[in-house]
Design a protein that fits this description.
One of its GO terms (cellular component) is alpha-beta T cell receptor complex. The protein is of the alpha+beta class. Among the domains are: 60 residues; 32 residues. A hairpin with a 2-residue loop joins strand 1 and strand 2.
Amino acid sequence: LVSLLVGASSNKEFLVEISGTTVTITCPLTGSNIVWSSPGRKSDDARKYIIENHDSSPVNVTCSSAGKTYELYLNARVCANCEELDALAVTGIITADLLITLGVLILVYYFSKDRKGRASASAGSRPRGQKMQRPPPVPNPDYEPIRKGQREVYAGLESRGF
């Protein structure tokens, strides 16, 4: 994260480069007598100002030459073990991740589809043909229909009122 505040009189910008814990700031002024000032840091007579072992704390940096002054508020987070990735590497990582995920999904689908077929066959269920009609259910002897001449079987049953 780099935040830049440049004075109102300037149309140019600072160039800030971060590598590990080293921050390099290039002043927009072109000249040989550029003076850098930063609280707690030494000033150099060069166009580039290098801060080594930056501790990620906000810093106000000023460069001036021939009456012109440019100010920079630097709020940069740095780390010693960070690696910078370009857009191509990030795109490659995301694409590889999506392809691997898609491959795992296809494998899970394939093996789960195959297991369903085996599970029903090993459960002992009868093999089904092509839309065979089911036979009618076996009649329950407790619910036989009343036939003529057999009313005495059901004579003891009377209707009950609710």
